[in-house]
Amino acid sequence: MLDEFIWGRVRRISPEAPVPVVEVERQSMALGGAGNVVSNLVSLGAAPVPIAVIGDDIGADRLRAAFDELGVGIEGVIVDLARPTTVKTRIIAHNQQVVRADRENRAPITSNIEDAIVECFIREIETADAVVVSDYGKGLLTPSVLARTLEAALKRDLIVCVDPKMRSFVHYQPVTVITPNHQEAAEASGIAIDDELGLIEAGRQLLRSLDCRAVLITRGEEGMSLFTDDAVTHIPTVAREVFDVTGAGDTVIATLALALASGAFFEEAAILANHAAGVVVAKLGTASVMRDELLATI
Q: Is residue 180 within a helix (H) or strand (E), and if so which, with residue range?
C-alpha cells in the first residue's frame, strides 16, 4: 500500500457544509501496509523481500520508487491489471487526522495471480530466515494462498509470524506466532475481553485452537500479553507520548520476526517489539524504528 499524507491547517468552517476547510501546506508519501513492515525491517538491519500485489498506475510507480530508495528488490511484487494499487490518503491538520480516503479493491485475487504469488514465495524462501504474513483484508491472502505458502514455509522449518485480519484464524496455521490486537483476539476466540480474566481465557483459547507456538495480543496503551505453553506474560507499554498509532502493528510484527530469526526467545522478542512500538507511536505518520532508537529506549 501507499500511505499519502496531506498536511495543513484549519482556520475556518466551510460555508457549503459543517466541515473544516484544510489549507494544504505540504504533501508526503510513505510505504504503507506490508511496505511499512519492509521499511521497519530495513531500518533494523534486515534484508526483506516483499511479495505482494500492486496495480498498473501512478501509485504503483511511487511504490517502486520508494522500494528502490530503500534498496529493496521487487521481483516478488506482482502487477494485477484488474485492480488499483491500494492508496490511503490521510488529511492532517494541526497534527490531528481530519479524514482518510481509501482507493482500493478488496476482492480476492484471481487464481492466476494466486499462482504467481505462490511461485514467488516458494522461490524466495529458499534463502529466507523467517516469514512475515501481514494481512490487511485487501484480497491478497486468500485461503488458497495461505494454505500453500504456510505449508511451504513449514517444510523449510521457517519462523512464521502472522499479523491477522480475518475473524476466523483457521487459515493462519501452521505458524510460529500470531499477533492479533485486542478486538481481533476477542472476535476470533469468541470470548469477550472485558478484564484480565477474559484476556487470559481468550489468549489460551487461541493457543489451544491454532497450530502455533505463541500468541501475542497487542493491547494499545495497555501493552501486550504473550501466551505460550509455559506461561502468560503481560508486558506494559513503554510509550511516553502517543501522537499517531498508524503502522504500529507493522513495527511490532517486523521487530518480533527479526528478533526471533536472530535467536531471541519469545519473551525477549515481544519485549523488543513493545519497545519498538513505543518509539513509532511518538512519531507522526507512517514511521519506522531505527536500531539506535530501539537501543536508546531500552
A: none
Annotated catalytic residue 56: no
pLDDT band at 44 (very low <50, low <70, confident <90, very high): very high
149-160 pLDDT, tens digit each: 999 999 999 999
- 2-297 folds as UDP-N-acetylmuramoyl-L-alanine:D-glutamate ligase (3.40.1190)
Nearest Cα to Cα of residue 139 among 82, 183, 195, 217: 82
pLDDT of residue 99: 95
Per-residue pLDDT at 7: 94
**pLDDT score of 247:** 72
* 3 state DSSP class of 24: strand
pLDDT at 166 over 90: no
User: What cell numbers appear for 23 in the block?
Assistant: 489549507
Encode 112-144: b = buried (16+ Cβ within 10 Å), e = exposed: ebbebbbebbeebbeebebbbbbbbebbbbbeb
Q: Report how far residue 282's alpha carbon sits from residue 289's, in angstroms, rounded to the nearest whole number.
A: 11
What cell numbers appear for 235 in the block? 508486558
What is the per-residue DSSP string for 35-75?
Answer: HHHHHHHHHTT------EEE-SSHHHHHHHHHHHHHT---T
Residue closest to 103 by CA, chosen among 32, 169, 41, 160: 32
Note whether 139 and 107 are within 8 A (CB): yes
Q: Nearest to residue 29, comparing CAs of 72, 71, 58, 51? A: 58
Q: What is the mean pLDDT of the chain?
A: 94
CA pair distance 166, 11, nearest whole angstrom: 41
Quick one: pLDDT at residue 285?
A: 67
Which one of 3, 68, 250, 292 is the catalytic residue?
250
